[in-house]
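Fold this sequence, please.
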Amino acid sequence: GNSMAKTRWGIISTGGIANFFAEGLTHVEDAELVAVGSRTQASADAFGDKWNVPRRYDSYQALVDDPDVDAVYIGTPHNYHRDNAIMAIEAGKAVLCEKPFAVNYDEAKAMVDLARAKGVFLMEAMWTRFLPAYVKIRELLAAGAIGEVRMVQADFCFDADYDPKHRLFNPDLAGGAMLDVGIYPIAFAYMVLGEPQQVTGTAIKAPTGVDEHSCYMFQYEGGVTAMLSSSVGTRAPVEAKIIGTKGYIKVPQPFFNARRFVLARHGGESEFIYEGKIFDEELIEVPTVGVGYNYEAAAVGQYLRDGKTES
């Protein structure tokens, strides 16, 4: 990558998530949105007009071939991520690929292997990890604020109207709860506890065969567990909890875009007494700007300046 101050971004796709990312870039001082690629000139132009993007391409190949683009953000449907990422990596572009990274292990491995072989930066856009609230949560966990973590609970469930052709329910578009929203509780558990020793999962399938509702239990050494769920057919509070030996952290909904969280230490001074035990809850507000996609973009810019090729 070059050492210029600003990271010059190109965006592949003009869908909802691409708009969030474009909005995010407006909050990153050392980033600039210079190009957009779509399948049609009309949608590239519309997106370009909306976000003031100078270069508008009617193909993804043309975008990745632009010598003035340093980094490419991929916001296409899940099943296109591998091919789009490989195209960008082949062109020598740094890649930030929207989650889920790919739809299965083999696709992800192909992307990673190529990026490593070519020495090109590649990262999954798990934007939640970069939010200031999450940075603070990781600091508190590392400092032992809630003692040893024993349990993680997280759910991302919402109710979508059933439509077999919609990407959420269409197997050809890598539909289903896990790839769309289950990735958030799963990534949350990985952030706190790392890779599980054992994974158990169960799913209720939609008529199209994708998981409409799925639950996952992760088991770790010493009886530590994560209990996670995701759904596109049932609404539930989108919350997460980390339970430790000395207290807990509760991330209220929507936990994936946290601006605040609760830190509780067992045995603090407070009015809340249950069965002789005292719980003390403290609400921690974390200053945040933008929709939240700006933090991952800023991080990628820093990684590129540092010469990193992965995160």
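The two ends are 15 Å apart (CA to CA). The mean pLDDT is 94.
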